[in-house]
Specification:
The chain is mainly beta and 113 residues long. Helix content is 5%, strand content 40%. It has one domain: Protein of unknown function DUF192 (Jelly Rolls). A hairpin with a 5-residue loop joins strand 4 and strand 5.
Amino acid sequence: MNMLVYCNNIVLADKVGIANNFFRRFIGLMGKKKLDFGEGLLLLGTPSIHCFFMKITIDAIYLSKDMKVLGVETLRPWSIGKYIKKTAHVLELGEGIASNVKVGDTIVIDNVA
């Protein structure tokens, strides 16, 4: 299922997958050589991430249970993301996509048929 993700009425991505179990969260974006424009991954139920075995740089948006932005950072391959208290989900997007997303913003997600 692809989802449309936006923040402050600006579309961040329109082809966002969902990782809602251990295996999908573990695999994440490993093996991807690039993220096409509009692609991303929402990891549900995970407070932190790492980029071990990854080949691409990503933007990570740390989210609360109600999808409020708690933190934003850019992660290079083989790095470990921040630990941010109360993080419930992490949205992974292409490098630079989250440059205008700020702490306190709300991420809105719509299912795309």
